[in-house]
Design brief:
Elements (H helix, E strand, L loop, with lengths): L1 H7 L3 H10 L3 E8 L2 E8 L2 E7 L5 E9 L4 E3 L7 E5 L3 H4 L9 E5 L4 E2 L4 E4 L6 E2 L2 E7 L15 E8 L2 E2 H6 L4 H5 L4 E9 L7 E6 L2 E7 L7 H11 L7 E3 L14 E6 L3 E9 L3
Parallel strand pairs: 6-17, 8-14, 9-19
Antiparallel strand pairs: 1-2, 1-5, 1-14, 2-3, 3-4, 6-7, 10-13, 11-12, 11-17, 12-14, 15-16, 15-18, 18-19
The chain binds magnesium ion (MG).
Length: about 280
């Protein structure tokens, strides 16, 4: 099934390298010597991919050291969909949804590992939300649930940063969920994992605040992709945040928040005041 997924994405050559190692391929996007490229993580090295990972590309023999590059958000989406209330531990006393509740974030909310989460001056209650994020691999419209996993290129860790007061009081969640820097993702896109059973953990200043497996999602990966694609055409590189477990709390300027997704690694960002 994993091999089918890779072949379906026309990534045979990249995938075969990874499959020979541990069945999991880790893709990065990075800046090195003023040039932005995609690559495949190979230990402490990055094998350079020429072209667009989600379009025409070629895995080269060239390598650059991981510690010499700046990692960027691993995808540049045309759209960012998010699912709310998708873990019972987060739903609490509220009714469990009978269908996935969708909302939008903006491509301009997406930032990479190490980037600041910029707190707008009038934000008062800025919360983290550690999440599994799906990265779409091919155009998806009206995809049956049984085929939905084939449309997932891989997964990454995400922080669905949310201003709770705006979320409660604004007409829509655009500002609360879609403001600039409210969508950190990374550090890699991992392909070939069992996306339906990964540990998601959030640490605030080193303290574990959220910890749950994606097996507990109310709507799983296939259900989400199929449902979203009934209404919205998904394109390669598009992102779907799948919901956050447990409870959240407000972050302050200077706080360091880490989202660790099993098989993907640690996404680390610091909260900064606007204008810095
Ligand atoms: Mg969320």
């Amino acid at each position: 099934m994993r091999r089918t997924l890779f072949l379906g994405l026309s990534l045979t050559c990249v995938a075969s390298v990874a499959i020979a190692q541990d069945h999991v391929a880790k893709f990065v996007r990075y800046s090195y010597q003023n040039q932005v490229s995609y690559g495949v993580l190979d230990g402490s090295q990055i094998r350079v991919v020429d072209g667009d990972l989600f379009g025409d590309h070629r895995l080269t023999e060239r390598t650059v050291p991981l510690d010499a590059v700046q990692l960027l958000a691993p995808a540049v989406p045309s759209k960012v969909i998010a699912i709310g209330l998708n873990y019972r531990s987060h739903i609490g006393e509220r009714p469990v949804p009978t269908y996935p509740g969708m909302f939008a974030k903006y491509p301009t909310s997406i930032v990479g590992p190490g980037a600041d989460i910029v707190m707008p001056p009038d934000a008062q209650s800025l919360h983290y939300e550690g999440e599994l994020v799906l990265v779409i691999g091919k155009k998806a419209k009206n995809v049956p649930e049984a085929e939905a996993r084939d449309y997932v290129f891989g997964v990454t860790a995400g922080n669905d940063v949310s201003e709770r007061i705006w979320q409660r009081e604004d007409l829509q969640w655009l500002r609360a969920k879609g403001s600039d820097t409210f969508g950190p993702i990374g550090p890699v896109i991992a392909a070939g994992l069992d996306y339906d059973d990964l540990l998601v953990q959030t640490r605030l200043n080193g303290e574990v605040r959220q910890s749950e497996r994606t097996a507990d999602l109310v709507f799983d990966v296939a259900a989400i992709v199929s449902y979203v694609s009934r209404y919205i055409t998904l394109y390669p590189g598009d992102l779907i945040f799948t919901g956050t477990p447990g409870t959240t709390r407000a972050m302050q300027v200077g706080d360091v928040v880490e989202i660790e997704l099993e098989g993907v690694g640690i996404l680390r960002n610091q909260v900064a005041a606007a204008g810095n």
